[in-house]
Amino acid sequence: MSARRWTTARAPGLSALDGRIVRPVLGRPTRGWWLAVAGSGALTLVMLAGIAWTFAEGIGVWGNNTSVVWGFGIANYVWWIGIGNAGTLISSMLLLTRQRWRASINRFAESMTLFAAAIAGVFPIIHMGRPMFWYWLAPYPNTMSLWPQWRSPLVWDFWAILSYILFSLIFWYVGLLPDLAVLRDRARGLRIRQVYGALALGWLGSARQWRLHGKLHRTLAMLAVPLVCSVHSIVGLDFAASLMPGWAETIFPPYFVVGAMFSGFCVVIVLAAVIRRALGLQSVITDAHFDVMARIVLAAALIMGAAYASEWFAAWYGGDPAEARFLRFIFLGPYQPLYVAMLALNVGLPQLLWLPRVRRDVGAVVLIALLVNVGMWLERILIILETLSHDYLPSSWRLFRPTLTDGAILVGSLGLFALLFLILSRVAPLVSIHETGELVVTEAAA
Amino acid sequence: MAQLFGPGADVVARIVLVALVVTPFLIVGSLYVWAGSPYHTRAGETVAQPILFSHAHHVGELGLDCRFCHASVETGRFAGMPATEVCMTCHSQIWTNAPMLAPIRESLAKDQPIQWVRVNNLPDYVYFDHSVHVAKGVPCEACHGRVADMPLMRQAAPLTMGWCLDCHRNPGPNLRPREAEFDTRWTGVGDPAKRAAALMAAYHVSTAGLTDCATCHR
Amino acid sequence: MSPTFTVTRGPRRGAPLDRRRALKLLAAGAATALASCGPPREAIVPYARVGDGEDLAPGAIRRYATTLTLAGYGRGVVGRVVDGRPIKLEGNPAHPASLGGSDVFSEAAILDLYDPWRAKAAAGPTGVAAWLDFAEALTARLAGHAADRGAGLRLLTGRVTGPTQLRLIKAIQARFPAMVWARYEPLHDDAERQGTRLAYGRPLTPRPRFAEADVILCLGADPLGPGPDQVAWARAVMARRRGGAAMSRLYVAEPGLSLTGAAADHRLPAGPLVMQALGLEVARRLGAPAQPGETTPRALAFAEAVAADLVAHKGRAVVLAGAGQPAQMHALAAWINQTVAAPVDVIDAIDPNPDDHAESLARLTRDLQAGAVTSLVVLDANPVHDAPEGDAIAAAIGRLPFSADLGLYKDETAAACRWGAPLSHPLEGWSDAVGPDGTPSLAQPLIRPLYDSRTAEQALALMAGEPDAAARDLVRATWRPGAAGDFEAEWRQALIAGVLRRGGPAPTAPPAARWVEPTPITRSPLILALSPHPSLWDGRYAANAWLQECPDPLTKEVWGQSLRLSPSDARTLGLGHGDRARLGFGSRTIEANVRVTPDQALGVASLPLGGGRARAGPIGSGLGGNPARLRGPGLAWSLEGLHIERLGAGRDGLATQADHRLDGDTGELLPTMSLAALAAGARPGADRPPPSLLTTPPRGEHAWAMVIDAAACIGCNACVVACQAENNVPVVGPDEIAVGRDMHWLRVDRYDPGPDDDPNAGFLPVPCMQCEQAPCEPVCPVEASVHDSEGLNDQVYNRCVGTRFCQANCPYKVRRFNFRDYTAGAPWRDLDVTALKAQRNPEVSVRGRGVMEKCTYCVQRISAARAESARDGRPIADGAVKTACQTACPSEAISFGDLEDDASRVAGLRRDPRHYVLLNELGTRPRTTYLARVRNPNPALRKPA
Predict the structure, then answer these.
(1) Which residues of B touch C51 (CB under 8 A)?
(2) What is the pLDDT of residues C392-403, one digit of tens each?
(3) Which residue, among C119, C145, C114, has the nearest Cα to C131 in the 3D structure?
């Protein structure tokens, strides 16, 4: 693929490109930006209201019941952490595999990771009955001489998410350094320049700094890949470490990692489309980018299909009556429509991407990407509902009905995600200045 | 281009970087110290009571037995506080008109109980049973300190869960022979280690279940 | 647990200033939030006077024997009292109607005592008044009746058995010779009275001796069902239903499934037609001059087999006719029992009132409407709710110059009356009562009356002309005369034991039972069969939240009841499961949900009485329609020509369990073995744990375990309510139930292992399994769910952060989560809950919102036993620790003990051939295990139940 061009022939000159990327940060905010902030801000308030109501009244305001003790809270958590997984994974893997086209997408992919992971981190806390004691999951010296219960996947989660967020922050920051320097030099007004200056840690762009920077970036990337895999594997273990039908499956960890990449890439596609339009970066975020990302999505969809199939096979081949009953339930039970929709969106729909025509059509790719994320959320919620609604004793078979609060918090979290991006767009370049620059120069030379 | 930062900038930067790492630990650490300190546990804090009752005088000087007032300490979960009549067993004879004892006389006259202020307080979710501890050779002093030397009552121990567990993991050193449990002047004789082992055996104390959660929490 | 920062602390000495300042600086920031002031200092309030010595030991549990009544019959209970507060009631082993067991009614009575909605003061024409004002008004009114010798005066009561009350009523009648004492129970035994009158010439009460019965035939009778005899009879019957050579055989023919039907070896769904045909057929084969009636082949085969069995077991076979059956059926039962020399004691009716209930009520209603009444005193009865013409009665009462209602609550009748005066709760006063078998017992107060109330005896004494008699003296005055020797000694002994050692009515030698040819009945349109409400009885317990939320044993419905229809009837009527329907006769109609159940007899719709209370406080009011309104005059049990009209698809009745069917592999959850198979060495399934890589936790001093005998369980729910009372288990209310939440630590699952036409329903009480390899433990992030050295699976409420992972990973789903603040929330929201707090068990934490809770094997009782053994140096004996559910169980289906002690009862039961482990294949190694159900089918009957 290295033969392909990742910039359009009539790419603007370096300085022009820089301008397009830098202006939104240092220039005055546009009306569109304000409108977007208003919209996403409103949604964020909805989420906060939902959380406040939950804190005031208790988990009782959610749809959870005696048998289905988990619901939206955990599903949203798994979904967001999944999205969060992709960014770092993408940009680090592409970096290691020397994919030049990453230059145009890595920055907002990494930012996406940061925000999604942060939002995901909120859910395990608000889903607790007594959230004020969330820190009991952390090992800290205390007068009760008590420690967390290390065998619990939730404790592993705690560490996984914490370390992942910290790491992503560092990885993102390192990648950002040279751009901060650019902003420092472009910005007017002493205060701003001092702020950017401090954040740029005295970056001068000397050859030595570039060499060290590159080395550090690649090293971090190497650390990132296993870390990313571990994070979502552990999320998978939250279920796999149980003995409930439909949960206790060894395939969960890898299947969760792939699922994460799947949904993550789809979100990247959407972001790419939005940013390309907003910043007018058609020159560096080209249709070729969407094409190649679509291929990856297609591949992931196939793996997901295989994963589902293996679940069914295991249930049938294992011969465990509980598993068999569970299988009957997901296909014939009251959740059947949701399950079918999930399969259609996650496995069926992406098959369209076999057609080059569809892959080349940005609109289509974006639509598919959006729908896949709906499908992925359905998958997350169904993993929880189906097992808990229909486990071993018929006496405890109960269905789950979500409440308004459930919906408010879910929808609101999307608003928060958007809001964070909008704010970032005023603080740091959403597309890497130095890397796209490098790309343009090299491809111009070629 | 004008300089953005002065010469000290690097130092500041380095300090900030270090602080980023150190501060969280500092905060947690200091909170831990604070939580265990008397400032938080209220250990050693003397409490104002409706009547200036002196254990030092009644127990230390007059040598009253703990059980004279705290009658149910051997039979019930709670040691029990003396009914006003119990105070009056003596004070109907001596200090009958002492102004200090006015509240007692009033209580009996009006048949209104005296409202003492609790000094050793455990959370509601802790189910502590005096009788069991007494039966197993734990002396009052182990938790309540040298009451005989307290003019006004104060909480002697931190009463944190960690403190409870220290003894529940290794009760031996705190145990006493039956006759010495209520002795406020007792000082162990002989080798403490030997004594501990002997008493553990004598009282059939096994630490197996002592750290079960249900031992104290239900 | 949350500290309040409002209180400032006294002067602090001791802590050196410099360190404090240092700490302040150190703990700046975060610490300032926690601030320097801790929670407020508690007060310790000792007694002023010593009183009677050890009794003052704070926190000590004391027990007192007393008596509660159900439908007027006395049942002995023992109250546990802490610091002057009764907190729990248990059966009195010395009382023949309890034998140490209890039922939902006596378990829940403690809640009524503290019910915030109780009548707290008298209310007269001028509003709230003191009891004395009422006494004055009543006395004045009665003085007026001296003139007409009480002709215009009526006293209305329920069934009265208490000797003191009867003595006082006699006194009143002596004072007002023309007064009429009306007496009725909505759930009456008129049929039995009339039936025995037909057979013997005078009303008698047959008392079966189940211990001697090898064969039992129930014609619509429900000896295991709710009622004054439930506990004693369940004990006697189920003692012989656990397999072994002595196992009895139980035939049940009934319109709708009952608890007895669920325990039967052979059950025949039978409407009146089939029922009579069956009875006649059996009688005919026993030599009666009976004409064989028209019947179904299945009923015929049933009759054949039963008759043969009855003959084969002459002298050891019993036939019972249900309260809902016609008098002739009772006469027929009497005749059969005599023919097969059944082990039945026939005693004179305990209830001395000569009138039949229906007749007594009808006459009162007539007199009221005719204006023959000028004064009415209603004592602990509620005709406005439970009489068929309740509304008419209410209207008539409204026209009376004087009317008074004395009761525990300001109920419908109180609202209709001019005066309402509060009666004391049975636990608040002195009284006495006679058990259904004739055993007299005393009731003593466990607590001073909480409000300005009097006992029923005092109220009657007032009418008899003794205005201010002390309840205790009234009772003593009753018993002193008959004293054999030293009365004081007998009195003291009676108070300790709870029963008086004075023989009740001895079994009379009845005259030969006449053969009564039943009037043939014709095939009739749809029939409505009414039955007692399993937890509200006739509706009088509707204000009790525990009972409202106590699931119907068979449908698992709570907070309301549905009309039960057979599938084919539902089809012909065009009704579906969960539909809303209007049912009734002509203008008398109510609305109800429809429940389609295969075990319902063709042509009969069943509905329990007790619903539709209008004034039962925020808990019991406005839940469904009032079936009592459908009964014609005569308090009929079953009515012909029911009309049902579909109103549309309603919400399915609120239930704690939706799926009952067991098919395929789920069958092994409730294995049912035939006696023959058991004898042949069959086993219900593996009870050895599968191999595991996990290390077994080390065993401590004891290894607590529970074995539940599914064969002995009658599904009565006594254990459920007992657990609720013992462990401060909250009520969640209908709204929460509707979204699938409940809090019962112990639930009784109902399963139908059989085919649709013969579900063979069975019960499985499910407390926490206390698994040795508990799935809940490794998943808890904060070690709130931990294993203890004695095998308990502890739940540490104060450590729980509410991730709910434990319940998600519990295959038995026995954990319960506080989704809301259930301690103070709905349905008590509008009420002052301070009174309720007094009921709570101080030895058990009251769980807050956001915390997971579950059965602990009553760990507080284990600790108590441990403390005792520590004090007196003796090891804990087998049976020294009894869990609340175990104590309550009328049929002794629950056993609890120490597996380390090989001689213990549980250790023995674990070796029983019927022993099995729920979901054994999961390798959770539960400490709670089960004994399989046994059936003793008659080989002669082709399709064994």
Answers:
(1) 83
(2) 999 999 999 999
(3) C119
